[in-house]
Amino acid sequence: MDGRSGQPEAAAGQPLDRRAELSEFLRSRRARLKPEDVGLPDFGRHRRVPGLRREELAQLAGVSVAYYTRLEQGNGRNVSAEVLDSIARALRLTDAEHAHLTHLAKPKSHKKKPTARQQQVRSSLRQLLDTMDGVPAYVVGRRSEILAWNRMAAAVFGDWADLAPGERNWARMVFLRPEYRDLFIDWEQKAIDIVCALRMDAGRHPDDPRLSALVGELSVKSDEFRRLWATHDVKEKSHGIKRLHHPLVGDLSLNFESFRLPDGTDQSLVTYHPEPGSPSAESLRLLASWGADAGRPVPSA
User: Fold this and answer.
1) How far is 57 from 39, CA to CA, in rounded Å?
2) How large is the average pLDDT for residues 268-278?
3) What is the model's pTM?
4) Among candidates 282, 281, 260, which has minimal Cα distance to 272?
5) Tens-place pLDDT, residues 283-295
6) What is the 3-state secondary structure (H, E, C) of the chain?
7) CA-CA distance, 280 to 285, in Å (whole number)?
């Protein structure tokens, strides 16, 4: 979508404000910690804001209050990796959160607007998808865009070929299309996972106009997205169990694995498989026998 289709102001191609992202991320991580969580005494004094004070965090990280304050105000210029490591330890950041902080504070230089280009999937990878008979699999890229998929993925998640290319996007589908609320039994967790992944993308590519347009669109159209985006949570989920309620075969419990491709494209191969001999395995075989007809629950846009 673009400005001609009624997109909100963020769709004008304005990049996300990296300094604001850095500031809000640090504030949100500091707010979730209490003095007792990090071994500091709590004397019961009234706290105007939740969580640790700036001076307490600076003490834990071994930096001056003025230095940390500048960083939390979004000024990450000239900050060292060692200082970021100390702050990450003090805030008890996960590996994904630590990486996100580093991306926000010390962004890598990019060529002018490389993120605006269309994402491409290697032909050999498309061939691999086609050979994975009986295994739902797809390639997802930056901004949660679904770039390629096989026949079984269409049977399980709906035939994405029926959607316009701009709508083949997990964030748009989960937050804006009602049928996906019915498909994912734990819809809230799926929504959280998507927003966390988009936050990671925002840290890596704050100058991506398509990402800022997507965030702007969803913030206007979805209260749930706006609520989750405001948490500033980030994580990378590489495996787990996804429970679905398929309109044709009922409940499915599928193990998923996400493999990030090592070629710097920000693409991942995602596969799903049931436990051998389980009811879900039999349901998947049934979907495979129906072929393309099983992928029709998702209506065209």
Assistant:
1) 12
2) 96
3) 0.82
4) 281
5) 999 999 886 555 5
6) CCHHHCCCHHHHCCCCCHHHHHHHHHHHHHHCCCHHHHCCCCCCCCCCCCCCCHHHHHHHHCCCHHHHHHHHCCCCCCCCHHHHHHHHHHHCCCHHHHHHHHHHHCCCCCCCCHHHCCCCCCHHHHHHHHHCCCCCEEEECHHHEEEEECHHHHHHHCCHHHCCHHHCEHHHHHHHCHHHHHHECCHHHHHHHHHHHHHHHHHHCCCCHHHHHHHHHHHHHCHHHHHHHCCCCCCCCCEEEEEEEECCCEEEEEEEEEEECCCCCCCEEEEEECCCCCHHHHHHHHHHHHHHHHHCCCCCC
7) 9
Higher pLDDT pick, 291 / 36: 36
Q: Answer whether residue 297 shows pLDDT above 70.
A: no
Output the CA angle 105-109-113, nearest 5 degrees.
Answer: 115
pLDDT surpassing 70 at residue 116: no
Amino acid making up residue 25: F
pLDDT tens readout for residues 124-178? 999 999 999 889 999 999 999 999 999 999 999 998 999 999 999 999 999 999 9
User: What are the angstrom distances between the C-alpha of 30 and each of 57, 63, 100, 241?
Assistant: 8, 15, 15, 31
Scan for tokens 């044709």, then name that residue: 248
